[in-house]
Design brief:
76% of the residues lie in helices and 0% in strands. The C terminus is likely disordered. The chain has a domain of 96 residues.
Length: 139
């Protein structure tokens, strides 16, 4: 009869299996989240810059639009083993850039607050589909 350690080595520990599943699920949903965030950011930026052109706001919008594709490149490239960390870092940087727009005198507080709320809702939508396969109902 095999020992417990030998059995766990053969089938894999449950924690590492779930971590691997979660990492694959995050990697799979990351691209769709980026599309939503970039579409919202670009739409809001165009409307805001047409209404009130300001070079500093244009710079912040460009920086915000550069974060998601760079993060996707890192998550699919050299940091593919750390996808969750890349996603968290990109989300933090994007949010910091967005909140940092409040330092620009021409930026409205209500507009920035609205965009932050939209960002939080848009980034939570793809993660709603991430579940461990063992938690799904069986029929």
């Amino acid at each position: 009869m095999p020992t417990y350690a030998a059995m766990m080595e053969r089938i894999g520990a449950p924690a590492s299996t779930y971590a691997g599943h979660r990492q694959r699920a995050v990697a799979a949903s990351f691209a769709s989240g980026i599309v939503v965030i970039m579409a919202l950011t670009a739409t809001y930026a165009v409307i805001d810059l047409v209404r009130n052109p300001d070079p500093w706001e244009a710079v912040t919008y460009l920086a915000e639009l550069m974060v998601p594709p760079i993060a996707l490149g890192l998550a699919r490239g050299p940091l593919r083993r750390h996808v969750e960390g890349v996603v968290l870092g990109a989300d933090f940087l994007f949010t910091a850039l967005l909140a940092g727009r409040l330092m620009i005198p021409t930026t409205t507080v209500s507009g920035t607050a609205l965009f932050l709320v939209l960002k939080f809702v848009a980034t939570s939508l793809p993660s709603r589909g991430i579940r461990c396969s063992s938690t799904r109902r069986r029929r």
